Request: fold
Amino acid sequence: MADSRLRDEAAIRGIIEGWSRALHAKDADALTAHHAPDLLCYDLAPPLATRGPDLPGLKAWLASWEGPIDHEIRDLNIEAGDDVAFSTSLNRMRATSTGGKQVDLWTRATIGFRKIDGRWLVVHEHVSVPFHMDGSERAALDLKP
Reply:
């Protein structure tokens, strides 16, 4: 049982680390390769929620960046059961927009996985940034771990 859990956690870690490499390479197909068809996504960009992988939207977003996108994963935690798992992490993205703006942003991510036909797939993805609770409703984009 413990060996099975370790294998599952390693498989999920491999998926997440693969995303980091795919983001760096701006490879939309690799970024969505482990998404379930009915994925529920709460992403940074509107709308509030999307269903299913949005390959055209992802490709358009990736095209809005010059060169590679640097990505760092920190404090990755994976909890895996027999057929359901989740991960939490802090993620840093550094890149230059096609307009020349330098971006250095930390986000929080919670990813839900389900083992379907023996393969771990992402069924839920939630990426967020905190916002200031002072009435300004400003995103707290300057926070660092």
